[in-house]
Amino acid sequence: MAPEGQVPDGSITGGQTARLILRPLAMGDAVQIQELFPHWEIVRYLRNVIPWPYPADGALEFIRDFALPAIARGDEWIWTLRLKNEPERVIGILNLRRGLHDNRGFWLDLAWQGRGLMSEACAWANDFWFETLGFPVLRVAKACANTTSRRISEKQGMRLVAVEERDYVCGRLPSEIWEITADEWRAWKARRAKESA
Question: What is the mean pLDDT of residues 41-49?
Answer without folding.
Answer: 96
